[in-house]
Design goal:
This protein has 163 residues and is mainly alpha-helical. It has one domain. Helices cover 98% and strands 0% of the residues. The chain has helices spanning 3-11, 13-162. The protein is rod-shaped. The model is unreliable at 1-10 (pLDDT under 50).
Length: 163
């Protein structure tokens, strides 16, 4: 035995204390190793979770981009259809207005022709009434003259009888 051994043996309590401290230190190191292993596992789990979240976010962004693209195409399509519909409605309105204007022009022309025809007939009727009136007046005057002549003749004959 060397001096150190002998002193450790002589002292008796110090190597035991040192051994117990080394054992405690080894236990602490092992505990730290276990804790580090646990931290590593938790870190790996966290990284895996973060990677999964990243992938989900990336997929959501791609889906959002696709949806945005589809909405844009839909909006352009709807705008195009609306423009076509508006042009068609405008064209239809113009055709309808043109037809209505044409029909009103024909109706106005027909009404004007009827008005001219009726005016012409009224003028003919007025002329006939004027002729009839003139004939009636002339016949009345002739009748009055004849009646006067007959009365005078009757009076003249009565005069002759009386003489």
């Amino acid at each position: 035995m060397n001096c150190r051994s002998s002193s450790a043996v002589q002292d008796g309590g110090q190597p035991t204390l040192l051994t117990s401290r080394v054992d405690a230190l080894q236990d602490t190191v092992q505990d730290l190793d276990r804790q580090m292993d646990s931290v590593n596992v938790k870190t790996d789990t966290f990284e895996t979770t973060m990677a999964a979240i990243h992938n989900q976010l990336k997929a959501l962004k791609e889906s959002s981009d696709k949806m945005t693209s589809q909405v844009t195409r839909l909006e352009l399509s709807m705008n195009s259809q609306f423009t076509e519909m508006k042009a068609h409605i405008t064209e239809m309105g113009l055709r309808i207005n043109s037809r209505i204007d044409s029909r009103f022009a024909k109706m106005e022309s027909s009404i004007n022709k009827m008005d001219l025809g009726m005016n012409s007939r009224f003028q003919d009727m007025n002329s006939r009434v004027a002729e009839l009136s003139s004939d009636m007046i002339m016949n009345y005057e002739l009748w009055v003259q004849r009646d006067d002549a007959e009365e005078r003749q009757d009076l003249h004959q009565k005069w002759r009888h009386c003489e």
